[in-house]
Amino acid sequence: PISQIQSALQSVAESGEIDSGIMLVREQLELMKETDAAKADGLLKDLDELESAGDPSKVKAKATEMLSKL
Fold first, then answer.
1. Residue 15: enclosing H or E segment and its boundaries?
2. How many whole angstroms separate alpha carbon 49 and alpha carbon 36?
3. Measured distance CA(68)–CA(66) in Å, rounded
4. What is the pTM of this model?
């Protein structure tokens, strides 16, 4: 559910560090494709960018951006 995605992204937005919760986000976004494919695809693209950001400030910014799209 979206609440699990929000919780995991909030943690990343606060810490700037990617943890195992990101795997849950990806799984939930894949499930979201069944009900809202356009939103899920956009968020999955953002998730790829988040995972490759590296710099904690960029990670925080991308996670916050994703939260605003949920």
1. helix 2-15
2. 20
3. 5
4. 0.92
